[in-house]
Design a protein that fits this description.
80 residues; alpha+beta; two-stranded antiparallel ribbon; 4 strands
Length: 80
Amino acid sequence: MANSRALLRSRVLQPGPIEEVIGDINRELSRDMKDTGRFITLFLAEIDATKRELRWVRAAHDPAILNHRATDTLKEWRRH
């Protein structure tokens, strides 16, 4: 977990889309975990307040759930 967190923190500070970030982290972790049977799941979101955009990537993680507080409803995030 500590290694995964360190990789993520250092990589997100470098330029590139979040899909590339996840790919780079996956390559590094795959080398470390090879035949151990260990794995992680990850959900990474990027918010661009200027463009009012939200982009996300999930890597073997369950779908994210959005809580609409105004309507008290839950909605699964899906790609369009």
